[in-house]
Amino acid sequence: MDTQHYRDILKARQAELETRLERIETDLDQPRNPDDDDRAVERNNDEVLEGLGEAGQRELEAITAALGRIEAGSFGICAQCGSPISEARLKAVPHAALCSDCMAGHG
C-alpha cells in the first residue's frame, strides 16, 4: 500500500480543515448586531457554524490519528479486528480506522 499517497491526502485535508475551522472561529467571534431580528438569525447561523466546527474538529482528530497510524506502520489495518481495510474504503475515507465489516457492526 502506498502510504505516502494517503499521507499526502490526509495532510491536504488537515490543512483545509484547519483553515475552515479558523474561519468559523473568526465568524463566531464577530460582534453581534444589536437588532433583535438580526440577532435571532445570527444565533441560528452560529448554531450551524458550531455544528460544522464540531464535525470538522472530529474529522481533524481522525486525520491526526490516521497520520499516527501511518507513522506506527498500522495504517490500513482495522483497529477492531486486525484485518486489512480495503483500498475502496480508504479511497472513500482515508482516515478510516475500521474495515467496512466492523464499521457496519459485523466485526
User: Kindly, what is the distance between the CA atoms of the first and last residues, rounded to a whole number of angstroms?
Assistant: 23 Å
Identify the CATH homologous superfamily of the largest domain. DksA, coiled-coil domain
Radius of gyration based on Cα positions: 18 Å
H-E string: HHHH
Most strands sheet: none
What is the domain total for the residues? 2
**Count the helices. How many?**
4
Q: What portion of residues is helical?
A: 55-70%
Please supply descriptive tags for the structure shown above.
107 residues, mainly alpha, Four Helix Bundle (Hemerythrin (Met), subunit A), 2 domains, elongated
Write the layout of secondary structure elements.
Layout: H1 3-28, H2 36-72, H3 87-92, H4 100-103
Helix pairs in contact: 1-2
Quick rundown:
The chain has 107 residues and is mainly α. The chain is built from 4 helices and no strands.
Could you characterize what this model shows?
- This protein has 107 residues and is mostly helical.
- It has 2 domains: 3-74, Four Helix Bundle (Hemerythrin (Met), subunit A) (Up-down Bundle); 76-107, no CATH class.
- The protein is built from 4 helices and no strands.
